């Protein structure tokens, strides 16, 4: 544990306050003739993020660079029938953002705001480095995959190009997604994921509903697909349907208030180095958490061979993972996974739902 005290917190706060008051940035709002960015948003929602005056400029670089973008200012309609993919992606990439070949940057941040509406997409919305996607908090927007959607997930935080990721997974910082419904129910049950979230610190998913096809043995849909990364946070997520509510592997991860309804498996924990699950609600789900518990489903069978400690030692290669890329040998991976597994059991797991999670 990192030693921590109220005194240390006080000192930290004081330092922060002092640095704010001596900062050259204006702390007091100036009167300004800068207009809000969207006609649509200001009339359709009372949410402050949509309507507040944007009067600052980016800290580094071109003063005309826009931090705040409303997707409707870039042509997204939110009407549920027009394909809004290109418009949304142009709202994200405007201003020479950190994309393919960049790896990381702190000088081109973006808040991408989605007014109320249903945004139909046919390919991934790519979340460039240092982007926040904020849906209207008063009337939550839906991002809906079309029946012919192609790509790894509706929102992709780390695209693969020729088998390599755009960003280094442990260095994929400053991403937030909040206040959305992501709906892949129009896609065939055999395919589709809502979010590919391969991220590290300063990242969060909050207040999101994942709508997936419910039930079926050929159901391969997933709310979150996460191969790896280094830290992050989830809160207030609801997963409806799908084969896996979430298929995840990461380290130093904190998750709370997750609800799984009618998923085949709630959580497929592919691997972890420290993962806290707190306040998990599981309704009508065959397998709550794999492979951590040897859990029996309502028929009394053992849930799955992967639910046993022995099965856990198999690192599962997800079909969405590229074939290229560094992978430990199966033998190394067996050793690593065994270590991770014991480490998790000894120190790091927190269970709030005693009915559902049996420990070995
Ligand atoms: C207000 O608008 C005028 C004319 O477009 C411009 O010259 C001026 O810089 C603006 N002021 C602010 C504070 O943005
Ligand atoms: C339970 O979940 C399955 C899908 O896995 C769904 O078909 C069924 O309707 C659900 N039952 C209830 C009572 O919601
Ligand atoms: C948990 O998440 C749900 C759905 O987002 C939300 O309605 C509820 O207020 C949250 N509860 C707590 C205790 O945070
Ligand atoms: C993370 O996952 C990607 C995609 O599956 C893979 O290419 C990469 O090698 C993985 N990185 C680590 C450190 O395991």
Automatic annotation (TrEMBL):
Keyword match Signal: yes
Protein name: Rhamnogalacturonase A/B/Epimerase-like pectate lyase domain-containing protein
Region annotated Disordered, chain positions: 310-340
All residue ranges annotated as the Rhamnogalacturonase A/B/Epimerase-like pectate lyase domain in the record: 68-285
Gene3D superfamilies: Single-stranded right-handed beta-helix, Pectin lyase-like
Record keywords, A-Z: Signal
Matching Pfam families: Pect-lyase_RHGA_epim
This protein's record includes keyword Signal: yes
Superkingdom, taxonomy of origin: Eukaryota
Stored InterPro entries: GH28_Enzymes (IPR051801), Pectin_lyas_fold (IPR012334), Pectin_lyase_fold/virulence (IPR011050), RHGA/B-epi-like_pectate_lyase (IPR024535)
Signal sequence, start to end: 1-27
């Amino acid at each position: 544990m990192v030693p921590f005290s109220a005194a240390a917190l006080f000192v930290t706060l004081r330092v922060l306050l002092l640095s704010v008051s001596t900062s050259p940035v204006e702390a007091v709002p100036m009167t300004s003739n800068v207009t809000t960015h969207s006609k649509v948003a200001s009339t359709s929602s009372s949410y402050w993020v949509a309507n507040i005056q944007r009067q600052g400029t980016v800290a580094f670089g071109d003063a005309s660079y826009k931090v705040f973008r409303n997707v409707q200012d870039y042509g997204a309609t939110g009407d549920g029938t027009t394909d809004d993919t290109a418009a949304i992606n142009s709202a994200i990439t405007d201003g020479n953002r950190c994309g393919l070949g960049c790896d990381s940057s702190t000088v081109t941040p973006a808040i991408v705001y989605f007014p109320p509406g249903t945004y139909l997409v046919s390919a991934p919305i790519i979340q460039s480095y240092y982007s926040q996607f904020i849906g209207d908090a008063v009337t939550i927007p839906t991002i809906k995959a079309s029946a012919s959607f192609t790509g790894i997930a509706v929102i992709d935080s780390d695209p693969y190009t020729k088998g390599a990721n755009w960003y280094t997974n442990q260095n994929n910082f400053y991403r937030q997604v909040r206040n959305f419904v992501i709906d892949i129910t129009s896609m065939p049950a055999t395919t589709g994921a809502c979010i590919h979230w391969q991220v590290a610190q300063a990242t969060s998913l909050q207040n999101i509903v994942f709508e997936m096809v419910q039930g079926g043995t050929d159901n391969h849909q997933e709310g979150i697909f996460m191969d790896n990364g280094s830290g992050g946070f989830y809160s207030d997520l609801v997963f409806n349907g799908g084969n896996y509510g979430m298929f995840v592997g990461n380290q130093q991860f904190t998750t709370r208030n997750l609800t799984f309804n009618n998923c085949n498996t709630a959580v497929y924990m592919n691997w972890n180095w420290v993962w806290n699950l707190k306040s998990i609600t599981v309704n009508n789900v065959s397998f709550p958490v794999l492979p951590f518990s040897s859990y029996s489903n309502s028929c009394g069978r053992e849930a799955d061979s992967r639910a046993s400690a022995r099965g856990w030692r198999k690192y599962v290669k997800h079909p969405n993972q590229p074939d290229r890329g560094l992978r430990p040998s199966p033998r190394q991976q067996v050793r690593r996974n065994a270590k991770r597994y014991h480490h998790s059991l000894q120190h790091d797991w927190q269970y709030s739902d005693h009915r559902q999670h049996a420990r070995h």
